[in-house]
Design goal:
The chain is mostly helical. The protein has a domain of 139 residues: Four Helix Bundle (Hemerythrin (Met), subunit A) (Up-down Bundle). It is 47% helix and 4% strand. It has six helices and two strands. The protein has a two-stranded antiparallel ribbon with strand order 1-2. Strand 1 and strand 2 form a beta hairpin. The relative contact order is 0.22.
């Protein structure tokens, strides 16, 4: 499973002053990409080896719901890993509802200092925002790549994940408790999205 929320050292990543702008933009872009998924894509593979397009779409809906729930003080595991209640092709509608809830919960600046419960322990909201910006970015890239989309990546979306990625997930080790493949090296002057996904084991 290529899921940034399982990375053991992610909570050590230093937060920016207020990473919510990047988080909300990542949510918006993920919704745009999800809305463009078509029936002919559903059974296709994605760069995230554990997920087909259908499974990744379901998982993304689950993640946007989960970020709203834990931001409001709820339990991480109260939201299932897949949004199995959502029918094929209804992901964009379910996403919109989940994203609205997320925006409402995360609009309160006090959330940045509030403890957010994650499987390995509580982290400040500012750190959780970076963790989930990273997850939304990676899975949006996965889904876009699998469905032939080429979204425009906003620097505000990528700033926090790029600043945190080396500390969050070191180059070694990979596999086991670190759910990412070996680093795919890209030129230092490569686009920010290529540097990010390469570090997490994707081939840009």
């Amino acid at each position: 499973m290529t899921n940034p929320t399982n990375a053991p050292n992610t909570s050590a990543a230093p937060p920016l002053a207020d990473p919510r702008n990047g988080l909300l933009k990542a949510v918006g872009l993920a919704g745009d990409v999800l809305a463009a998924v078509r029936p002919e894509h559903y059974d296709g593979t994605t760069p995230c080896p554990d997920y087909s397009v259908r499974q990744l779409s379901n998982h993304l809906v689950s993640v946007v719901r989960r970020v709203a729930v834990i931001g409001a003080g709820g339990q991480f595991f109260s939201v299932p890993h897949f949004a199995e209640d959502v029918a094929d092709g209804a992901w964009a509608e379910a996403w919109a509802a989940g994203a609205d809830k997320l925006r409402s919960v995360w609009s309160d600046p006090a959330i940045l200092g509030r403890e957010i419960g994650l499987p390995w322990g509580p982290v400040p909201g500012a750190v959780a925002a970076i963790i989930y910006t990273n997850e939304f970015v990676l899975h949006t890239w996965d889904l876009a790549s699998a469905t032939g989309q080429n979204p425009e990546w906003d620097e505000a979306v990528l700033a926090a994940p790029l600043a945190a990625m080396h500390r969050a997930v070191p180059r070694e080790p990979r596999g086991g408790q670190v759910p990412f493949g070996p680093v795919v090296d890209v030129p230092e002057d490569a686009p920010a999205i290529d540097r990010l996904v390469g570090w997490y084991g994707r081939k840009p």
